[in-house]
Design brief:
With 435 residues, this protein is mostly beta strands. Helices cover 4% and strands 66% of the residues. The chain has one domain: Porin (Beta Barrel), CATH 2.40.160. The protein has a 20-stranded antiparallel barrel.
């Protein structure tokens, strides 16, 4: 799938902005990987090996100007399978934000775009035939106005388009309106009251009755936000109500919390707690450039269930990361439970952890390991999957711009479902040019 058109517009807007808007900073790397997998189709009975070539572009564009703020980060890959009968694939993981101050502190136009690679069927292994491109775009105006000396108001209007390249049930068009009253307690702390209403219309042409069909969602909540030198805190507490076109309704408390502590300039600890109604499009559409570092450098696929289902998500996650001159480490255990409101077939509980560590024995050499494990239980269909992804790498910087990297990777799944377990070994050699 080509790069989303809305992201192209964001990149062009940032690149073509006049000098007074602020200079853009662009970092990127061009990579060419050659390797072999002994089980590309991740099959339990009929593993097929294949050599592969994988050109790759990674970039991070940042522009902060008086009237335009733009940020885009992405990882675009092209997988060329040399044998095995698999079609070539272009895949992209992208996040972009653009904030155009038409009238500074009065009227802004905001755009957000998030693209990711997800499975077509989350119950099947991530073979080349079971991956797809998913994209969620949000755009619209934000109006800000003053209500008092320390009280401001904000109104947001957004149109949100979500699309999947293979699962039509995911495709939707959403209209969102929100009003916020924001009280500034101090230069670093705010307290706000928030009300938003959203209409979700699924555009596949056939209503997904099993998942409730089109619906309206209303959120009323208070938010406490604090940004200090070494500590960030966000806390939301409120209530959500859902009303479907078929006449069904649901309501539930809403709670979200996030704490990030920067213990030192090079280490941080993050804790997140969530309890709310959500769906795949809302979760995948969240743009966050402050996520913990990637746990592995391999070509991975997400684990979202791509469809129209609305669920109650409960999630707890702790993440720690330290980046030193010679040693870096990241670790994140988590627990999550999804309870679907209208179709319980994919209700799931998951717990797992991801780990990444690297060491520089010499200034130009780096060795590292990574591992991510998850146990996923589907309660309604009495199924349990245990996934493990592990990798070992060695890298050398040859010059200011050139380096190489060798990755040895292993993917394994054991499952209570017949013929759903597999093991895969991958070796990749990568030549890298970094700007």
């Amino acid at each position: 799938m080509p790069m989303p058109r809305i992201l192209v517009a964001a990149l062009l807007a940032a690149a073509l902005s006049p000098p007074w808007a602020g200079a853009a900073h662009l970092d990127y790397s061009l990579e060419l990987s050659a390797g072999h997998s002994d089980n590309v189709n991740q099959s339990a009975l009929d593993p097929v090996g294949s050599d592969m070539l994988a050109p790759r572009l990674r970039f991070d564009l940042d522009q902060q100007g008086a009237s335009l703020a733009a940020r885009a980060a992405g990882d675009i890959r092209y997988l060329h399978y040399l044998d095995g009968g698999f079609g070539n694939q272009a895949l992209a993981d992208l996040d972009a934000q653009l904030d155009w101050a038409i009238l500074p502190q009065r009227l802004h136009f905001v755009l957000e775009d998030s693209a990711s690679v997800q499975p077509v069927d989350v119950l099947q292994p991530d073979s080349p035939a079971n991956v797809q491109q998913v994209n969620v775009v949000s755009l619209g105006p934000t109006v800000q106005f003053r209500l008092g000396a320390t009280l401001t108001g904000q109104a947001d209007v957004r149109v949100i388009d979500s699309r999947a390249s293979k699962n039509d049930a995911f495709d939707s068009l959403r209209e969102l309106g929100a009003f916020r009253a924001i009280h500034r307690l101090s230069p670093t702390t705010t307290l706000s009251a928030n009300l938003d209403a959203q209409h979700v219309h699924f555009t596949s042409g056939l209503p997904d009755v099993a998942n409730g069909g089109d619906y309206d969602r209303y959120n009323l909540y208070g938010r406490y936000h604090s940004t200090l030198a070494s500590l960030d805190l966000d806390l939301d507490l409120g209530y959500t109500r859902l009303e479907t076109d078929s006449g069904a309704s649901r309501s539930s408390p809403l709670a979200r919390g996030r704490i990030e502590w920067r213990a030192t300039p090079r280490s941080r600890l993050r804790v997140e707690l969530v309890r709310r109604y959500s769906d795949a499009a809302e979760d995948l559409g969240e743009v966050d450039f402050n996520r913990m570092p990637a746990f592995t450098d391999s070509l991975l696929v997400g684990d979202a269930t791509i469809g129209a289902g609305v669920y109650l998500i409960r999630r707890a996650e702790v993440g720690y990361a330290h980046e030193g001159d010679t040693f870096s480490i990241a670790f994140a255990p988590y627990w999550q439970q999804l309870d679907y409101l209208f179709d319980s077939a994919l209700d799931e509980s998951a717990r797992g952890a991801a780990f990444d560590a690297s060491f520089r024995p010499r200034p130009l050499w780096t060795i590292g390991i990574s591992a991510a494990g998850e146990r996923r239980t589907y309660r309604s269909i009495d199924r349990r999957d245990d996934d493990l992804r592990a990798g070992l790498f060695l890298a050398q910087r040859l010059s200011r711009h050139w380096s190489w990297r060798l990755d040895l990777l292993r993917n394994r799944r054991s499952s209570t479902a017949p013929l759903q377990g597999f093991s895969e070994n991958v070796a990749l050699f990568t030549l890298v040019f970094t700007r």
